[in-house]
Structure formats: C-alpha cells, structure tokens
Amino acid sequence: MAGRDSELEEEACYADCDRCGTSLYVILRFRENVPERVVAIGREIDWPEGYSK
Ligand SMILES: [Zn+2]
After folding, report:
1. Most CB contacts within 10 A, which of 1, 20, 23, 53?
2. Cα-to-centroid distance, 18 and ligand 1 (Å)
3. 7-48, pLDDT tens digit by residue?
C-alpha cells in the first residue's frame, strides 16, 4: 500500500450558514482529488491550526 496516504488530503474551506449567515469552516477529505466526506465543521473564528486559510 505504498503511497496510499498521499492520495488522501484534507482541506479547510470557507462556508456560510444558509440560515443565520454565520461564517464557518468545513474540513473536507479528498481522495485522489475527489471530495469524499466532511471531517469537521465549525465557526470560522475557531479555524483549526495547520489548515491554510
Ligand atoms: Zn446558522
């Protein structure tokens, strides 16, 4: 399974709540450049360290 992990990538994206307009971050997991699932979501003010804005 060499190189398997290199196909996985996580990226933090900006989002806004449709209801109240709160600024959010969404961390998506990509597998071979295809978004696979949401890993985490939270307020933009709590943007997690280690993810580029
Ligand atoms: Zn909301």
Report:
1. 23
2. 6
3. 889 999 999 999 999 999 999 999 999 999 999 999 999 999
Separation of alpha carbons 28 and 3, rounded Å: 20
Residue 6 Cα to ligand 1 middle (Å): 34
Question: From the CA of 23, how far away is ligand 1's center (Å)?
Answer: 9
Q: pTM score, two decimals?
A: 0.78
Outline where DSSP puts E strands in 1-53.
Answer: 8-16, 23-31, 34-43
Round to whole Å and give the CA distance between 51 and 34.
18
